[in-house]
């Protein structure tokens, strides 16, 4: 059963530069189950923030309904919704220390001093800020400020936590740590969350479900693994992870395998993007760089020439050109075999 439900939500704005309108959100529907973390993932400008703000009540939709815990909340202002939002900018109070920042929401809700103290210290422990109660935001690192913003939101025990690119102001290494930390905290507190990001890695690591958006519409929604393995269109396949594409003709479809024929007549079993399953139809094969192996010319599904190789420590990525198309092929653990040389002719084998 859905805990949060968006039903056919649309939002348009007056185009600030022209006469027309911008369809920021264009008829989207999705659900979030109790305790789940769902991410809205998509490129900048695709309508993620607008969608999140509509759920929080900071923006009112032109069409559609928002339901939280079974109740339509369309007409409720943000402070009457059972939600808390963590903004990209943190928006901490600079003149209040960590304790006061986190306690603020409880104070205006008239909790007793003892209760406030207990709740704030509990949350600071959960987010790993114990001992920093008296610090002011100006004396905190980016990661610590991020934790304060998070603590301030979850201390109110909202039924729904809304996070808008909360890690985007952190440097790469810290972002990676906080990503893992955030997931642990979310599971520990068990709080239902909607998380907005344009970072596919963040979406993959954190989410129970990913909702991929483009131009105000939902293009796919599924678990991270299914989105990666079975993208339903070219946009999703190339936005999430790296993808090679190759045209083929559909030969056979079984429950767990699809067979296609390549232009050179070879038949392979693979993942394809498809609109329908008509045998004989043209389809686009999606081959992830790690699902292609390099082999001898006679054993390859196709044959190509090594154009380039990029060494990144744990693997080598080869750029192989075949019949005018370029393929990226990852070789993990490149120490175990002799590497092909630039200009060498090589076979590519597609694995499922
Ligand atoms: P995202 O968060 O995915 O980057 P947004 O939801 O912020 O995207 O914006 C979606 C689209 O709506 C963009 O084209 C943006 O310029 C436009 N937009 C957002 N807010 C406003 C506004 N207040 N007025 C006019 N256009 C807006
Ligand atoms: Mg945004």
Notes on the protein architecture:
The chain has eight helices and 20 strands. The chain has a six-stranded mixed beta sheet with strand order 6-7-8-3-9-10, with helices on both faces. Strands 13-12-11-15-14 form a five-stranded antiparallel beta sheet. It is globular and about 75 Å long. It has two domains: 2-229, Rossmann fold (3-Layer(aba) Sandwich); 243-350, Nucleic acid-binding proteins (OB fold (Dihydrolipoamide Acetyltransferase, E2P)). 35% of the residues are buried. The protein has helices spanning 48-56, 98-108, 113-126, 142-154, 172-189, 200-206, 224-229, 234-239, and strands at residues 2-14, 21-33, 37-41, 63-68, 71-72, 83-86, 160-164, 192-197, 209-214, 217-222, 244-254, 257-262, 267-270, 272-273, 282-287, 292-295, 302-311, 315-322, 325-332, 345-350. Adenosine-5'-diphosphate binds at residues 13, 16, 22, 24, 42, 44-50.
List the helices and strands and how they pair.
Elements: E1 2-14, E2 21-33, E3 37-41, H1 48-56, E4 63-68, E5 71-72, E6 83-86, H2 98-108, H3 113-126, H4 142-154, E7 160-164, H5 172-189, E8 192-197, H6 200-206, E9 209-214, E10 217-222, H7 224-229, H8 234-239, E11 244-254, E12 257-262, E13 267-270, E14 272-273, E15 282-287, E16 292-295, E17 302-311, E18 315-322, E19 325-332, E20 345-350
Parallel strand pairs: 3-8, 3-9, 6-7, 7-8
Antiparallel strand pairs: 1-2, 1-4, 4-5, 9-10, 11-12, 11-15, 12-13, 14-15, 16-20, 17-18, 17-20, 18-19
Helix pairs in contact: 2-3, 2-4, 3-4
Adenosine-5'-diphosphate binds next to strand 2 and helix 1.
């Amino acid at each position: 059963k859905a805990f949060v439900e968006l039903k056919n939500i649309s939002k348009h704005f007056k185009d600030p530069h022209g006469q027309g309108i911008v369809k920021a959100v264009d008829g989207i529907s999705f659900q979030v189950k109790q305790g789940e973390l769902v991410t809205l993932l998509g490129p900048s400008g695709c309508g993620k923030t607008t969608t999140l703000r509509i759920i929080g009540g900071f923006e009112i939709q032109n069409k559609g309904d928002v339901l939280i815990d079974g109740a339509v909340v369309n007409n409720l202002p943000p402070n009457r919704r059972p939600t808390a939002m963590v903004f990209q900018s943190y928006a901490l109070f600079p003149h209040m220390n960590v304790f006061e920042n986190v306690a603020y929401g409880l104070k205006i809700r008239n909790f007793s001093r003892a209760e406030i103290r207990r709740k704030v210290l509990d949350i600071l422990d959960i987010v790993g800020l114990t001992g920093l109660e008296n610090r002011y935001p100006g004396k905190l690192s980016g990661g610590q400020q991020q934790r304060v913003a998070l603590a301030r939101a979850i201390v109110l025990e909202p039924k729904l936590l809304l996070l808008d690119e909360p890690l985007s102001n952190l440097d790469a290494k810290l972002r990676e740590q906080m990503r893992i930390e955030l997931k642990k905290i979310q599971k520990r507190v068990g709080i239902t969350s909607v998380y907005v990001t344009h970072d596919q890695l963040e979406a993959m690591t954190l989410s129970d479900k990913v909702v991929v958006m483009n131009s105000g519409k939902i293009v796919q929604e599924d678990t991270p693994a299914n989105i990666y393995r079975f993208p339903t269109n070219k946009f999703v396949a190339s936005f999430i992870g790296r993808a090679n594409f190759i045209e083929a003709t559909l030969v056979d479809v079984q429950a767990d395998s699809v067979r296609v024929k390549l232009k050179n007549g070879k038949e392979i079993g693979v993942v394809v993007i498809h609109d329908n399953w008509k045998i004989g139809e043209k389809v686009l094969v999606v081959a992830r760089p790690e699902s292609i192996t390099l082999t001898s010319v006679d054993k390859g599904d196709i044959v190509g020439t090594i154009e380039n190789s990029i060494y990144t420590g744990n693997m080598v990525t080869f750029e192989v050109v075949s019949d005018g198309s370029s393929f990226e092929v990852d070789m993990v653990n490149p120490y175990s075999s002799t590497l092909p040389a630039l200009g060498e002719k090589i076979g590519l084998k597609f694995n499922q």
